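Milestone M4 deliverable, item 7.
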Amino acid sequence: MRLSRTRRHLTAALAGVAATALLAACGSGDSSGGSGDTVRFGYINDFNGASLIAIAEAKGLWKKHGLTADAKVFTNGPLQIQALGTENLDFGYIGPGAMWLPASGQAKVVAINTLGNSDRVLAQPGITSMQELEGKTVAVPEGTSGDMILSLALKKAGMTKDDLKVVPMDPSTIVSAVSSKKVDGAGFWYPAAATIKKQIPDLVELAKNTDFEDEVSFPTAFVAGNKLVADNPEKVKKVLAVLREAIAFRSEHTDEAIALTAEKLKIPADQVKADAANNKVLGVEELDKLTRDGTIDKWLKGMNDYFVEAGKLEQPVDPEKYYTGDLFIGAGK
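Output delivered:
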């Protein structure tokens, strides 16, 4: 599978960063289950990325299915895909902006999680349109949903990244840079954007996911390494059984899921509730139906088309080959 030149450079750079991130994560992981096959599972510190992990740990789902979870926190999806590729991680979580990596054949999507509406193009007070960002400095976590929302908003405004001074930054640096007004704007997401708003209450939101819902859906997902899926389907089935139970619990007991996530992330429940409100939670029966009727493949095909148009991919893999919907449904039997 051929990536564009920019993506090849990004992939190479991320490979080095992933190793560093893994070392940093080693001291911040949580283990649960107590016995059984160990699963190295990556997640992100927000409702989308952490709620199922929090539920699985609190409800003893790992142990129930003969697993022990070694959960490690990451700052974004691309780093987790790189860790899967180097076999330093078994499973991970990605937002929609990182979906180009499974679409390039670098991982399998084993479960759809939620439909996201957390992404925003942010701007400093006084900037009221995308056109007013022309020539200004805009930060973005490259290869993520922040990158994606910025690209979509620019296209809608008849602009490209060449019209801006785009500066790649990691998420924590973006929070600092926007809060201290060192950059004019950012392609970013909630809940981190809420942290910026505490410093800049009149921060401007120029674009959000729902502005483009007629063109593309924004699924978040859980991913696994290609080799693991090929060589150890039983382990994958056990993990998917855990995720299915956690998905069902979250859709049926959303308030408790929010409380468990807040407890795991050590942040106020109101903050997690606000984060959850930016996303559509899907139930397990709904996900089965959307898998069977081809809706999820349609979502992923729409994202493939976006990534090609945006220059991130030249020849994406067909969703039927990188979304293992049959495994997800089979894990419920």
